Amino acid sequence: MTPDTVDQQIKDLIKKACEARANSYAPYSGYAVGAALLCDDDTVITGCNMENAAFGPGICAERCAVYKAVSDGYRHFKAIAVAGSPAGEPVSQYASPCGVCRQVMREFADPASFQVIVAGPDDEYRSYTLEELLPDSFGPDNLQ
Ligand code: THU
């Protein structure tokens, strides 16, 4: 795959994350996040953040996507794109996944190869491996 093809695939995934972001339910923080999770077979499952009047039950966009995927039978993932910024505005900042979401992704992803793509302003993005964002992690192997 050429670097241009990879770049285009990443931009397509970011576009899906932005589309999911439009469904964000964030009346308390006013911060809208969308995520698009790329499964091993190239299926894309999206998620958005969903808040709650009781605060605690709210969920991040990344976990929403992972839980949707796992409940649909997908357990192997290659990448996730995340787009977050104040609601009603275009993406203006790099919204890196929170620690809880990093750990949830860790359950189903190979930390060395799974790519976390964080959308930024002006069609730009930053890309990390999960290992970079969650080094020396605790995972399923620890419990074998
Ligand atoms: N949020 C996400 O959806 N993903 C993250 O990784 C960080 C934060 C959401 C949770 C909450 O609804 C809002 O952003 C503000 O924290």
Give a short summary of the structure.
By secondary structure, the chain is α+β, with helices and mostly antiparallel strands. The chain is built from 4 helices and 5 strands. A 5-stranded mixed sheet has the order 2-1-3-4-5.
Low-confidence stretches: none
Report the sheet-strand fraction: 15-25%
Average residue pLDDT: 97
Strand order of the largest sheet: 2-1-3-4-5
Major sheet summary line:
5 strands, mixed
Overview of this structure, please?
The chain is of the alpha+beta class. It has one domain (3-143): Cytidine Deaminase, domain 2 (3-Layer(aba) Sandwich), CATH 3.40.140. Helices cover 31% and strands 24% of the residues. It has 4 helices and 5 strands; from the N terminus they run αββαβαββα. The protein has a 5-stranded mixed beta sheet. α3 (99-108) links the parallel β3 (77-86) and β4 (115-119). The protein is globular and about 40 Å long. It binds tetrahydrodeoxyuridine (THU). The site of tetrahydrodeoxyuridine has 14 residues, from β1 and α2.
What does the secondary structure layout of this molecule look like, with pairings?
Blueprint: H1 3-21, E1 31-39, E2 44-48, H2 61-71, E3 77-86, H3 99-108, E4 115-119, E5 125-129, H4 130-133
Parallel strand pairs: 3-4
Antiparallel strand pairs: 1-2, 1-3, 4-5
The chain binds tetrahydrodeoxyuridine.
Residues 26, 29, 31, 33, 49, 51, 58, 60-62, 84, 97-98, 101 line the site of tetrahydrodeoxyuridine.
